[in-house]
Amino acid sequence: MMRKFYLAALFLSFVTMVLHAQSKLQNNMFLKKLPNGLDVLVVEDNTVPLATLVMTFKAGAFTESQNSSGITALYLNMLAKGNKDYANQEDLDYHEGQLGIQLSNSTTAEEYSRTYFTLPAAELKEGLDFMNTEIRFAKMSPVEFQKEKEIICNEIKSKQSSPSFALSVAMLHHLWGNLYNRKTALGTEESIRAATNTDADSVKTKYFNPNNALLIVGGDVKHDATFALVEKIYGDWTPGGSDPSKKWPIPEFKPLNKSDYYTVESPLSKSPLIEVNWQGPDTRNDIPATYAADIFSYIINQASSKLSVALIQSGLATSFNISYLTLKYRGPITLYIRPNPLKVKECMVEVKKQIELMSQDDYISEEQIATAKRMIEIAKIRQEEITSDYTKTISFWWATASLDYFIGYRDNLQKVSHADIRQYVEKYISKKPYCAGLLLSPELSKQLNPEAFFTSN
Amino acid sequence: MKKLIVIFISLCSSVSSICAQTETQSFDAGGIKVIFKHTSKNIINVQLFFRGGVSNYTADKAGIENTTLGATVTCGAGKYNSAIFRDTAEKYGIDFSGASTLDYGYVRVNCVSKYFDKAWDMFSEAISNPRFEESELKLLKQKEIASNKEHYSNPGNILARLTMQNAFENTPYIIDPTGTEETVSKLNADDLKRYYKTILNKNKIFIVVVGNVTKQELFEKILAAFDNLPSEPYSPVEQQTPVWKDNRFQTEERPLKTNYVCAVMNAPDYTSINYVPFRLGVMGLSGNLYQRLRTQNNLSYNPGAEVVETKMPFAMMSTDANNPQQAVFGMMQVLKSIQSNGVDNEWLQHIKNVYLTHSYINEQSPAAICNILGEAEILGGWQYADDLPKLVQMVTVQQVNSALNYYITGLRWTYLGNIDAIEGFKPPPY
User: Fold this and answer.
1) Cβ contacts of residue B238 below 8 Å, gap of 6+?
2) Beta carbons of A304 and A368 less than 8 angstroms apart
3) What per-residue string of b and e applies to B85-116 under the rule 16 or more CB within 10 Å gives b?
4) Which of these, A237, A319, B91, B188, has the minimum number of CB atoms within 10 Å of its CB?
5) Is B329 domain-assigned?
6) Domain A2-247 matches domain A260-452 at the CATH topology level
7) Mutating which of B112, B354, B362, B418 best tests the A interface, going by the most A Cβ atoms within 10 A?
8) What pTM was estimated for this model as a whole?
9) Which CATH number goes with the domain that contains B293?
10) Which of B203, B200, B222, B232 lies closest to B30 in space, CA to CA?
């Protein structure tokens, strides 16, 4: 699916073309590709007089080497440090106030980087200009670059003050081996301090190009007028050549050979936490499994599920959650469990037993499948209610799958069968090795001696 | 301040006509106050508020209201035993929650409009006939205790709690509405039933509804469901906010990678004519802190300031900091600077622009609108929330500058982190 999409980008004509996906879009959505390759999606919603602008690039942790870990987020943050029209961050902040801009921020994750803000719809042209100059004409002042590195190091320290952070970082290493950095956009203090302006320029040259980007404009706007404005402002943005994912291929993650257990002690931990991860499917190789994964997660998280009855109703745990993160390069399946501190061992025994049982035919029921499908449908209705958030949701799907995937998501979920789910569980969970981490305080660790039971035996 | 008040009153006379387009309305349904806003959205949010919050109980019962209201939607209700209630809610994607805060408790239901009838039936049973099944209550208590422990493993949350204890000594606000392991573990079904009787009172509750439903339909539903609820006289407890005129600094040691500091300051009541100017001033303070501490001096990652909307009002500024002494001096300088130099018209216009966008962002979500209207009603009247965007547009720089100087005359600091980093530190007199 993505292959077709990229081929289209390569053989662009010089007239603006409307993508074939247009006909399948919801009635209030309109898609256009500019001659320079920039995809533009307009989401019309006139319930409040606002417009949200989201510019997303296919760049993030997955495009970074170990040495350059965190460089994409660092580069993205530098866009807010001044450009050809605004001298520095103070100047940018000041003009954001002038335009009434809110929710202004940027995010870098596993497989995308995006910058976004919301402003009065009447200021749409000014907002598009503001974003254009921010993205294309950043100053990249060396002094500001050094300052931003310090800020990110402060952010890392702040996250390290949360006990669950250590568990998550350890999980990345255990699950993804020496490519762990391609699953975390934050970087490390070491990699951030070593970053140079040249590294940041390289990110810009490789990935921050119109043919690797999607601009979403959502809110009280008209699509024709918006397309015209976007083309006028962004039309002269020079494309960056061929598909970066082909020019700089992403290495494949090595599969796990065996299940791997570890414990993390933190004096900050007040209650134990178990995290179990599998390497899940991705949107390049197994799209049907990604749909089954979402349905399965919604089933297991239901209070009536066998896992819930075994863990929550029995009092072995106070809460749990399973999820699958849709990605193009191996999405993780994550099971979090908050065990009863007095029954951590019993809880883990039960978790192992339940994982074994998950592929059995009667582990889930037809009614649970129907409920899960309805729940996802309702979750989507809830998402669509808030356009300033929904635009960001769409950008996630574009980056980690494709717009076609997003458009067909609802229908494809409805087609998932009991057999599809069982196949997914067998292929990615019940018969596969996993990583399991246990976070606890040194006192509880001494009391429980987790090495005796928190193992694959 | 007198001048400020006069200016503001003269402007207020025109507020009602400016705000006439508001769709929010209030009516009585069988003795229960109802606040209703119709929207065309697909989601309906209903929230029943209980007035009083932590002033409804003593410290040894901390968490009782939170657990009681949580139990109304998890431990069975009327014809639904707990399992059926939970499964039905899941089946139709109906979200229920019940909890309590410093000033109020609530039970909330949120659903897509096509399942509103089913959601309402369950909601009305939860309010009128909660079962408080003992076995489910045991699980709920375990969950609450674990959730509380997790909450307080986060340094920001620990700092917030310590700040309340330091700033609000000898007031009900030192009570944590979610309780402690000790207080919550002692609660049983009989305690909850007895407590619920004390708060289920038509004069102590009100309902906020936001969604695609008609006023008539709503009126009939409320009357049919809640007409028989008890109706007793209710007088809210009068509370006196502490006055912080000194610059006291209290510390708590924790082995953290970075340090956290927070300062509490006085603020006007929500219904005060100085409230809106003060709130805009603190928005400006927050921006200035961000620029000074983060953008210019790299002293912290996340500095800011906010007005906390509570019946005993206060504002706070907070930050993380590797060098807390420099950060505290920096925060003091920024605050003193905005107090002595004031703000100008251009700055104020920018704050107004941003505020308007912020208001419209909230308007997208029925749950957010419900919460804003309900909190405003708790603090003095739902109309204030509806009028706020208009009131913001009327604020002058003189009002902002006067309000910041009138209310902020001292700070109560709380520090969490490495004691070595703050050794020998004494904040300057305010």
Assistant:
1) none
2) yes
3) bbbbbbbbbbbbebbbbbbbbbbbbbbbbebb
4) B188
5) yes
6) yes
7) B354
8) 0.88
9) 3.30.830.10
10) B222
> What is the homologous superfamily of the domain A260-452 according to CATH?
Metalloenzyme, LuxS/M16 peptidase-like (3.30.830.10)
Reported ipTM: the value is 0.87
- Domain membership of residue B403 (yes or no) is yes
Q: How big, in percent rounded to 5, are the helix, strand and coil portions of chain A?
A: 50, 15, 30
User: DSSP label at A122?
Assistant: G
Is residue B177 domain-shared with residue B36, that is, in the same domain? yes
User: Chain A residue with minimal CA distance to B152?
Assistant: A270
Please give the Cα distance from B252 to B262 (Å, whole number). 12
Same domain, B251 and B143: no
Closest residue by Cα to residue A339 from A195, A437, A238, A452? A437
B134 Cβ contact partners less than 8 Å away, ≥ 6 residues apart = B188, B189
Task: Say if domain A2-247 classifies as CATH 3.40.50.300.
Answer: no
pLDDT value at residue B300: 86
Shared domain for B207 and B286, answered yes or no, is: no
What stretches of A332-433 adopt beta strand conformation (E)?
332-339
Which B residues in the span 46-65 are in contact with A, Cβ-Cβ below 8 Å? none
Tokens of B170: 């000898």
Beta strand ranges found along B130-246 (DSSP E): 205-211
Count up the domains in chain B and report the number.
2
Q: A339 vs chain B: nearest CA distance in angstroms?
A: 9
Domain parsing of chain A, residue ranges: 2-247, 260-452
Q: How far is CA B357 from CA A58, A123, B323, in A?
A: 29, 11, 35
Q: Which residues of chain A have pLDDT under 70?
A: 1-23
Do B167 and B273 lie in one domain? The reply is no
Residues paired with A106 in a beta bridge: A115
Q: What Rg do the C-alpha atoms of chain A give, in angstroms?
A: 23
The phi, psi pair for A32, rounded to 5°, reads -150, 145
Contact B303, B262 (CB under 8 A): no
Q: What are phi and psi of A101, to 5 degrees?
A: -75, 135
Amino acid at site A150: E
Q: State the residue range of the domain holding B153.
A: 23-226
Residues B394 and B285 in one domain: yes
Per-residue pLDDT tens over the stretch B193-239: 999 999 999 999 999 999 999 999 999 999 999 999 999 999 999 88
Task: Please indicate, yes or no, if residue B16 is contained in any of the structural domains.
Answer: no
Q: What's the DSSP call for residue A17?
A: B
pLDDT at B413: 95
Alpha carbon distance B122, B99 (integer Å): 17
pLDDT digits (tens, 9 = 90+) for B240-269: 999 999 888 999 998 888 999 999 999 999
Joined tokens for residue B195: 């407590």
Which positions in chain B touch A386 (Cβ < 8 Å)?
364-365
Last residue of a domain, one of B166, B197, B226: B226
B207 phi/psi in degrees, rounded to 5: -120, 135
- Within a domain: B8: no
